[in-house]
Automatic annotation (TrEMBL):
The gene is KCNIP1. Belongs to the recoverin family. It is found in: Cell membrane. CDD domains: EFh. It holds the Pfam family EF-hand_7. Keywords: Calcium, Cell membrane, Ion channel, Ion transport, Membrane, Metal-binding, Potassium, Potassium channel, Potassium transport, Repeat, Transport, Voltage-gated channel. The keyword Transcription regulation does not apply. It comes from Bos mutus grunniens. This is Potassium voltage-gated channel interacting protein 1. GO terms for biological process: regulation of potassium ion transmembrane transport. Its main location: membrane.
Length: 225
């Protein structure tokens, strides 16, 4: 493994930890300034001001995120293997590979096999600080694995099972093998309002916003993002 590859993987673990701090609100203004002082940002994304306008992150937060993204990996892009290694370290008691695969392809909106900083931070802005409607639309896109504009039961099953696999046996000590299938059967029945075997975006949005149980379950996804 090249030195650049090692630095890239180490850098994105740090990057993921910074994201976690943003999620939990533990990245204070003083901490942001300390992090900025620790390392000089040698590269700067073009359109930082534009990203600030397009996202819900402050300029300082964008600088911290960008430093972790580009300073540690000069190529400026993340590939799927790096995604998988990050999630494997955060969820050591489970198998995060499939969830990382699905999540990566949701971030890789152009289907190029790599994710740029702009793509990543735009999606993070939605997931961490977007409106309920924005988060639900993004989540629908994650579940729509084949990108045909609909969610079928097998697609929902694939995502839900990937989340259960990632959380591992220590998180769910009494989890039965058929629990993900039962979970999906109940939710799909609620969402597929016209019983045509697929869930449209409108059905997904309506079902999630009118059913507190579905909304609470979707929090699992946001918490493991």
């Amino acid at each position: 493994m090249s030195g650049c590859s090692k630095r890239c993987k180490l850098g994105f673990v740090k990057f993921a930890q910074t994201i976690f701090k943003l999620i939990t609100g533990t990245l204070s203004k003083d901490k942001i300034e300390d992090e900025l002082e620790m390392t000089i940002v040698c590269h700067r994304p073009e359109g930082l001001e534009q990203l600030e306008a397009q996202t819900n992150f402050t300029k300082r937060e964008l600088q911290v995120l960008y430093r972790g993204f580009k300073n540690e990996c000069p190529s400026g892009v993340v590939n799927e293997e790096t995604f998988k290694q990050i999630y494997a370290q955060f969820f050591p008691h489970g198998d995060a590979s499939m969830y990382a695969h699905y999540l990566f392809h949701a971030f890789d909106t152009t289907q190029t096999g790599s994710v740029k900083f702009e793509d990543f931070v735009t999606a993070l802005s939605i997931l961490l600080r977007g409106t309920v409607h924005e988060k639900l639309r993004w989540t629908f896109n994650l579940y729509d694995i084949n990108k045909d504009g609909y969610i079928n039961k097998e697609e929902m099953m694939d995502i839900v099972k990937a989340i259960y696999d990632m959380m591992g046996k220590y998180t769910y000590p009494v989890l039965k093998e058929d629990t993900p299938r039962q979970h999906v059967d109940i939710f799909f029945q609620k969402m597929d309002k016209n019983k045509d075997g697929i869930v449209t975006l409108d059905e997904f949005l309506e079902s999630c916003q009118e059913d507190d149980n579905i909304m609470r379950s979707l929090q699992l996804f946001q918490n493991v993002m």
